[in-house]
Design goal:
Blueprint lengths: L1 E2 L23 E7 L2 E6 L3 E5 L14 E7 L2 E7 H4 L12 E7 L2 E7 L1 E7 L20 E7 L2 E6 L1 H4 L5 H14 L1
Parallel strand pairs: 1-4, 3-11, 6-8
Antiparallel strand pairs: 2-3, 2-9, 4-7, 5-6, 7-8, 10-11
Length: about 180
Amino acid sequence: MSITPPTQPHAPESTLHGSQPNSTSPQFVGFRLANQNYIFRIESIQEIVMPSRVAKIPEVPAYVDGVSNLRGMIIPIVNLRSLFNLKRRPHDDETRTIVVNVGSRTIGCTVDSVLRVMRVPADTIQPAPDSVNGSGRRFIEGFTRVEDDLFILLDASQLLEPANLEQVHQASVQFEKNS
């Protein structure tokens, strides 16, 4: 996996609540959307790149920006802000595309910024609380704290499965209405 160097200085190994990370703790890539922190398991990530030119394609949902050429491979680009029913914003110096492998498919996910790669002890990941209900629950593996920040662990294989994308979007719209 290749990772574009962060625009911020690399943070030291994160301090976690509970167990301390060690070399056997699973690794995750942390990223931001709006004011919320998320993580994907590192094994689902192929690479992280600067956003490239996207070709718009007709008759796709609004959360699909189009397709992009990644070294000769055409991949769909999903805007996670739009998928989660958050207000879109223009790309800036921190915007990144996280290239995720889902089964035999490769999908680019546009995020506001990539924070860092981190190790998180499995025993610090808590399941989603009962208040997270409905169809959106199955896309969240759990929650964890790193230092004082809460991270939502997204299940990339469920979240980005083509058949589930519209359900993710509808769950986000419903959550927004209920908030």
